[in-house]
Amino acid sequence: MDSIKINALIRCIEDLRMKLNKYRKIGLKEYPTRTIFVDPLLQALGWDIRDPDEVELEYPTIDGKSVDYAAKINRKPVLFIEAKALNDSLTDVKAITQVVGYAANGGVEWCILTNGINYKVYHSTEKAEAPNKLLFEISLDPKETEGMSIQQVAEQFARFSRNSMAKGLLDEIGEQIFTTGKIRKALDKLFMDPPNTLIKLIRSTLEDDSIKPVQIKKALKILWIQPLGNEIPSTYKYTEQPVPSPESKAKGYNEEHHLNGKPQEVVELFKTFDKFCTELDPNVVQREALKHYIKYTHGNNIFCCVRIHKSGLRVWLKLNYSDLESPAEYVRDVSNIGHLGVGDVELTIDSLQRFQNAKSLIQKSFEENKSK
Fold it and tell me: Which positions fall inside the DUF5655 domain (predicted)?
């Protein structure tokens, strides 16, 4: 969206936010939720809800039912939107399966389930259970997007604007995220339980018959992944490693605890972030999952903490905000603000592109806090 339209979208979001508390107390049913919250947002996103050639209401599905909105490009549906009552949790698997099924059966790649506040975007044709087709989630509620600037929130909503859908932006993001996830899972399987064909290929490439298959298997596991809570064998460590906290041990917090129920984009965002942090010094960097966040240490020194939200990552770095040169809008000083994690600089990372921009700050925190 151009700057003029994004500004109009920001004003719309601000206006809708002002109505949240009032209408949550009332508890709007589905139809008024649509008219008060969904319709204005769609208009701000460039969809003309008064033109049935662009947005058809109560669009018939092949099972004789209907979906609330069918957004069209060149009169062809490209996005289904199903609205629920304002206070609906959007967690009902039946409701998720229904809207995803409407889209998949109708040949529509994308669909949204919303309660007028939270918008969950699904890729209907993805080969997975309906809840796992969730690409990303964004909310009008500032509590749900804490740390994100309103510009960031608007940019997330703009992903399903009319202009973005016409350009295939969701297709591009979806292909990147879901394909990366599938390849990651395939590599997990190959590296953690390598087939003989892979072992033979590696041995032939090494041209060193003294390296046995069992050694290759162990090396692949070490190179590919170091599970939370497990340490690399001592022969690979060069400094003393911190002992996991009693909290982490007692509660059994792990990566799954933090990733459970998160959209696929956030999962891949964390995986990329995690790989970057651990590879800053793979023989020394340790990560530990606590109840609310994951911390990264070099020796006994924390250099980074991350909390995983439905809309992205909140990262805390041990840096002085005053030392940063022209910090971006997603970087803020939290030295005088109560927050989780360790560090006075907070980053709100909601996309892989923003993570690429943030890598230099994470690297800086690592360099300034690594053990000597």
Answer: 256-367
pLDDT tens digits, one per residue of 184-242: 888 888 888 889 999 889 888 988 888 888 888 888 877 775 544 334 333 333 333 44
Residues 34 and 121 in one domain: yes
Give the 3-state secondary structure of residue 117. Answer: coil
Tell me the β-bridge partners of 73.
76
CA distance 25 to 43: 25
The torsion defined by the Cα of 223, 225, 230 and 236, in degrees rounded to 10, comes to: 10
| Burial (0-12, 13-18, 19+ Cβ within 10 Å), 13 | buried
pTM for the complete prediction? 0.83
Burial profile 105-137: b = 16 or more Cβ within 10 angstroms, e = fewer: ebebbbbbbbbbbbbbbbbbebeeebebbbbbb
The tokens describing 105, both together, are 């059966």
Structure token pair of residue 272? 């990329």
Q: How far apart are CA 96 and CA 184, in angstroms?
A: 25
CATH of the domain at 78: 3.90.1570.30
State in Å, rounded, how far the first CA of the chain is from the last one: 48
Residue 243 confidence (pLDDT) above 60? no
Within a domain: 233: no
Tokens of 78: 């490209």
Residue 135, C-beta contacts closer than 8 angstroms, at least 6 positions apart:
121, 122, 123, 170, 173, 174, 177, 178, 263, 264, 265
In degrees and rounded to multiples of 5, residue 207 shows phi and psi of 55, 40
Among residues 110, 144, 164, which one ends one of the domains? Answer: 164
121: which 2 tokens?
């975007």
Out of 164, 183, 202, a domain closes at: 164
Q: How many domains does the chain have?
A: 2
Close Cβ partners of 127 (under 8 Å, ≥ 6 residues apart): none
Distance (Å, whole) CA 293 – CA 262? 14
Which tokens hold the place of 4?
């003029």
Residues of the domain holding 339: 241-369
Taking residue 11's Cβ as centre, other Cβ atoms within 10 Å add up to 13
Q: 106 lies in a domain?
A: yes
